[in-house]
Structure formats: structure tokens, C-alpha cells
Amino acid sequence: MNTEILGIIVMYGLVMLLAIPLGRYIGKIFNYETTWLDKIFDPIDKLFFKVGGINPNIEMTWKQHLGALLSINLIWFILSMLVLTNMSWLPFNPDGNPSMTGDLAFNTTISFITNTNLQHYSGESGLSYLGQLSLMLWQFISAGCGMAICAMVFVAMKEKTTTQLGNFYSFFVRSCTRVLLPLAIIVASILVFNGTPMTFEGKDKITTLEGNEQNVSRGPVAAFVAIKQLGTNGGGFYGPNSSNPMENPNYLTNIVENASIFLIPIAMIFALGFVLKRKKLSWTIYSVMTLGFLILLIPSVISEMNGNPAISHMGIAQHMGSMEGKEVRFGAVASANWATYTTVTSNGSVNAMHDSMTSIGGMMALLGMMINCFYGGVGVGFLNFYIFIILAVFISGLMVGRTPEFLGKKIEAKEMKIAMMIALLHPFLILVGTALASNLYAGNPEALSGWLANPGYHGFSEMLYEFTSSAANNGSGFEGLGDNTPFWNISTGIVMLLARYLPIIGPVAIAGILASKKYVPESNGTLKTDTSTFGLLVFAVIFIVAALSFFPALTLGPIAEYFSAK
Prior knowledge:
The protein is an all-alpha fold. It is about 65% helix and about 0% strand.
């Protein structure tokens, strides 16, 4: 077997080896069951609650959960804007990096509080260490918010009839202190021992092999990289992200960082089974997500292994596959694997340049973000999938002539309207944004020539990718796009904002409404939602929605590029 293929199998095997017990542990945290770490973290949690003036024992309705989430995110938005626009004179700036402009700070702040981490700047030159540390804090916070709001949905699915769905602040603090922080310490330690910097000193002057002197940026890199991977954040300390050897020194760190992307999203699926005591349902959901993941991964790996046909036409051998924009340390297969991991989740970190991928590889990355529910981001990945479960339950109920029911609750018009609006919001944001950008560029290509390094089919893909990444709260990019302009900063900022909070509000509202309804015990006539048949129906609904929504746009971009290179 090709050793590169073996490497990606080992990576996924490592994820599964860790994700199932982690899911059981997360399930205990959400159920407030005793764990062996309670003696360590109970005092820390109590300190946070005391300082914040919070009573974690007060139960909240779904509306109160949303109110808490949105209000604290607004506070973090204001704090982040203050830091980013004043970095030049604030402390922890040994390299004298400048403050951000208003539009760039707006984009960056929204990007990090929404778990997107779209970066229209290069971290080593665009941020002070205080700026990096503030963004690192938002990476914990945004991931913790996703887990907390997902925990509320788990509770809503678990209870027979209730309006009291736990405490958002309690779920949030427990997710950060008992899951994200310990895992981040472990991953950061592995990175430090393999050469990733962890210091507050400024640039280091080194002498290269050619005898030239060069300044190398340093900083608290290991801690930043650990949470960017574990929290499906993805923001790089350096501009090249994890293709930079300072962030990702060797193949071992590549495995650790790659596995970290999937670890919590998959563990959350199994946590659902433990919370609801419906392990078969969690395995059904996992199977559907994994099927979708493999359908995206396999063509991407094959395409990158076979090389770029345009280069083959030049008579250049590509024994190592398509290596343009890739690190020799990792190769074509590991790069395609990372690209799929990072785009089926909302991670967005990269160990190769996606703009240089083959047309098929680039299209698979786009599809991962367009579908946006195969594993997905920490917590919110399941919320996106939950919408398709509701749609599938309703459709299957119509097909067999029965009242649609999910976990003993009837699905009615109100829930369906919310589900359809959320399902259509994602393609709406992507396609409208891309159409607007395309129209502006086509109307004045000379004035906007800095937007696209590759006009034509690939240039269209670059703009499509930027809005897709923003709407999926992913953050990766086809970096041939000149994106640090007022138009791109403001437009993608608005898309990230809408794409983060509306898809949270919708599933939470549905779960809260269903939780308050009368419980109907399952009978022989109840549609089973933990079977392979129902799983395939959910997959079909996802496929149809994605195909109908995005096929025309993909035809204008990567598909046209593929046939033009033949």
C-alpha cells in the first residue's frame, strides 16, 4: 500500500480511537455525571461563576440561552475591536506591528467570534502579541459557545416535555475548562517539544545557509495553534498557516494537528448518544457524515495524486502528484487529506495552498463547505445536521402517510418553516455574495484588477470560495484573491455574522419548541430514525439540496476549469 495512503488511514484511526471515549466523557459533562477530573475543575468553575456573578443552577429556556449567547458575543466584539484598532501603542508588541484599519478590524473581529477565522492579514506582521492572545481567547470562547448551545439542544432532545433546558453559562464554562483547555495543553506540549515556538520575545535574527541574515518571527505560537485546531477555528499565527514549519514542523505534528480537527466534532456525535442514551442514533448520524466525508476525500486524493493535467501537457513528469503550492514534507496525499478535513469542518486551517489544488481537489473543498454538515464545526456541525434530520423526518412522514415525529415529538408547520429558511440561508448568502462580486468585477475589471490573480474560470472560483468559506464559518481561502479591501472585509464580515448566528437560532428554536410539546410514546407505527434506511434518506436530502443549490455555480468555476484543462 502507498505509504501516503497508509498515513491518512492511521490519522483517521487515531481520531476514532480517541473520539469515542472523549464523546463518553463529554456526555458525562453535559449530564453532570461524576468524572475523575471534577476535583481539579470544580474549584476553577466556581471561581468563574463567582467572578461573573452567575448562578449555574438556574435553568434557562431556549430563548434565554440565545439571549445569553448573543449578549456575551456582543461584548466580546466590542473588546476585540478596541484591541485590534489600538495594538500599535498597547503592550506586548516587541516587533512594532501597526494597528488594524477599521474595516479590517471589523472583519477580523467577526471572523474570530464566529469561529470562522478568515484572515485578510498575515499574522506575524499584522498583529501584536496582545492581538494574537486576544484572538486566541476568542478561539476558546467561540468553540465553547458552540459546545454549550449544542448541549442545550441535546437536553431538549432528551427531555419528554419541558421548557427548562439547563444553564448556558454552566455548559459554556464546563466545555472550556474540562474539554478545550486540557486538550489544548496536551496538543501545545507536543508542538513545543517538536520545535514550535512558545515565547514572548520578538523576532530572532538568524544566518541562512547562503550566509544571509534573516529575521524570523516568533511568539506564543504553540498555544495558538493548539486551540485553532481543536476548536475548529483554523486561524494561523503566521500567514501561511500550518504550511509554515514554525506552526507545523514535521509529519508527527501534521498528524496531531490533522487529527485535532476531527476529534471534538466526531466526539460530539457520540456524546449525543450518551446524553440521549440512544447510541444507535449517534452511529446512524456518524455513518451518514462519514459516507459524505469519504465521497469528498477519495476524489480529492486521487486527483492530487494524479497531478495537474495542464502541467502534464507541458511534458513535465509528476511522480509525486500535484505538488504546486504543497509542502514536500507532507506531499500531495496528506495535503488533500488535510484540505478535506478542514473544509468538511469549520476549521479552515491549511497545510497547502488550496488555490493551487487541481480543479477536482478545489471543487471537493468547496463542496465540503457548501454542504456544511459532514462533521462540521465544534457543536454547530450537529446543529446544521439537525436541520436536515427535521427535513428528512417531515418528507418521510409525507411519503408513508404518517404524522412526522422525531423522538416522540410531532414536526409541524412552524418547525418546517424554520428548517427551510435555515437550509436555504446558506446557499443564499454564498450565491448572492458571489453574484455581487462578479458583477462588480465584470463592470470594472481594470479598476478591480487587484482582486483576481487568475481571471477566468479560476478567478470565479476564487470569489465563490471566499463567500463559501465565510458562509460556512470556515476561514480558508483561494489566496489568489486580493481580499484586504473595504468591499471584501465588510461583505464577508456581514456574511460571517449572518451565517453564524441565524443557523444557531433556527435549530435552537426548533429544539426548544419540540421540547415543550407533549411527548408521544413510540409505537409500531413510529418512524425509526436510527436505521440505515433513515440515514440514507437524510443523505439523499442533503445531496439534493446541495446539488440543486450549487451545481450551476460549480459549473461556472471548477467544472469549467477541469474541462478547459483537458
